User: Fold this.
Amino acid sequence: MNDTMVPLLFAHVGLRLPARLGSTVLGLAFALAPAVAIAADDDYRATKTESDYETQGKRAVASLSAIEQAFGKPNDYRNDLGHLVFADTVGAKLGHAARWELVSNCFEHHYKKDVKFIARWAVCGDDAKQVNFDKVIAERKAAGLDISIGNSDKDRLAEIVAMGADVEKDAKDDKGIQQVLAVGQSARTEWAEFAANNADLVATARGLEDAVRLGHAKHFAGCEAKTRPAFEKLARATHFEDSDRDPLLSYANQLRSTLAGEFTALAWGACAYGLDQSAEGLFGAVASGSANNLARGPRTLTLKRLLAPTLKPKFADRDLVWEQIPFSFARHEYQAPVNVAAMIATQQIARISKVEAKGDVTVLSFKRDKIEACLSWVDSDKIDSIDGNGKVVYQRQCARRGMVENSMEPLEVATVFAAGLKPGQAVDILSKFPLVSWTGKKWHAVMGVAL
Assistant:
């Protein structure tokens, strides 16, 4: 047996040889590897490798072929949470090889029927039931790839599905398991209804996300008329809580209480970035997120619901303890393909003395005086996020306000984001993007739109 046979022994669909095995164990591979099931096609010869499908340059997610979904997804989708965001973004067009990659990643390292497996079954069990290796082989053959499927993959899928069936059986007598699985069922129903009733909104948001990836002005043509009115309505209906923790991220999260809010904000953020690069931070804030606040489809919506602090299932099986959550999904964030620094840029706060529109730019001049601002912050009882260790982070609220020195030179902002800005207002600016303006406790503009 020679080295060229190693890929046959370790052939995976959507998976490569785990790095932890390393080259030192390859000598044992031949003795320890399971038998390999080869598709019955003696005349077929592979002409390409998986690396040939690693996408290069700027590509829209919607344009990826079934096999590119498995091996060529953009880097921002390659952590545990990113796999779920990607599958939700692709939606019904998810390929069979990509679905198996999702399932194998979702259940990786989970070999016992514990609370983590139960939670993962709620998120990915529906996908596990749909994996069809015959269709995976067909996709690989059409793409010119090796069509061997390792018995280890088949055995692993059978193990996952069998454990999932046991979980569903146990749920009949365990209300805690029932409650967890019901979260997934409810989320899939909620998503299906939302997607059916808001098909244009979902398509617009996803199309503009792809426009950001492509990075050409032509892909944003007409987007303002499609996205600004809905975002204005959303912003005006939202009672924003002030924040001293990266305010742009906090305000973005406050828009995500509903799926409509999630996609309306995503659509406007992507469009805004296309209109002017000063909105890069805005797009990053509404497109990125953690497992407890991101909802792009049935899987991420299920995960968001599972991580809600109000969910406290009590299991009949004393060995099942929900505090073992968060699982690895919750330790990751999905980071949109933008400069992270743009989302957390240093704030510039000043009082406007003059607003002068000059075509595509508007010049803001500022008074040299004192401006009212929060001097002391305290935690509220409203949840802002959950960190990677499962610790609840609460929104902050102002405990004491006062006057601070205000000294700022005139600044140009994009006219498209200057709506609602007037002399006498205080304004918070991040990297030339007017985040919010106010007088006293009354807000006048937020995220580029007038209130």
